[in-house]
Design a protein that fits this description.
Shape: globular
Largest sheet: 7 strands, mixed
Strand content: 15-25%
CATH superfamily: Glycerol-3-phosphate (1)-acyltransferase
CATH class: Alpha Beta
Strand order of the largest sheet: 1-7-6-2-5-3-4
Number of helices: 9
Number of strands: 7
Structural class: alpha/beta
Helix content: 40-55%
CATH architecture: 3-Layer(aba) Sandwich
Length: 206
């Protein structure tokens, strides 16, 4: 119940305050049919997780910085919004195993390959852990790219720029072959993560 109340508030806020536009929604519907799917999006702003959740229209699990779970109301509400804690400075296998478990259970999980929000608005480098999750879970990846979120609420801003248009563009589903995923070691996982980031980079603004 808490998740869907939050969903409605986010949907209303993004529609009224940021004129949220979703391009390629039919690709989201196709991803639903594949069961578990890893949603991979660039990370431009605090607005990214709720914007993707609103666009996906299905209960989505996502990662949040571990320290946020210790902060009063935010710490109380995050688990109820389907957030999973992760230590950004030292990602642990407990968090990764939970992500893999969710995916194997047929649930969608949102992840930001870059790990943290951009400081410049440009795309960053993907982390190898993303490739590990994809290889172990064996699920397709739905790439997305968000435009306008950095302008609306950049990392060092104290308040959002109301009225800035946010557009979420959905790319084509990435389905890695069994051979692609039959890898071990950081270097191989990094190659998978880099490919996901490359595909995100090919998504152009409408």
């Amino acid at each position: 119940m808490c998740y869907w109340i939050g969903y409605f508030i986010a949907w209303l806020s993004f529609r009224l305050l940021f004129r949220l536009r979703v391009v390629g929604r039919e690709k989201i519907r196709a991803a639903h049919r594949s069961g578990g799917v890893l949603i991979a999006c660039n990370h431009a702003s605090y607005f990214d997780p709720p914007a993707v959740g609103v666009a996906y229209r299905k209960r989505v699990a996502f990662l949040a910085r571990k320290t946020l779970f210790k902060k009063g109301f935010i710490g109380w509400v995050l688990p109820r919004l389907n957030a999973m804690p992760i230590d950004q400075g030292r990602p642990d296998f407990t968090s990764l195993k939970r992500i893999i478990k969710e995916l194997r259970a047929g649930k969608p999980v949102l992840i930001f390959p870059e790990g943290s929000r951009t400081r410049t608005g440009d795309l960053g480098v993907a982390e190898a852990g993303v490739g590990l999750v994809i290889a172990k879970a064996g699920v397709p990846v739905l790439p997305m790219r968000i435009f306008g979120a950095f302008d609306a609420f950049p990392r060092d801003a104290k308040r959002p720029k109301w009225g800035t248009r946010i557009t979420l563009c959905v790319g084509d589903l990435i389905e890695f072959s069994e051979q692609d995923l039959a890898v071990k070691g950081r270097e191989e996982y990094q190659k998978i993560a880099d490919e996901v980031m490359r595909r995100i980079g090919t998504i152009e603004a409408p």
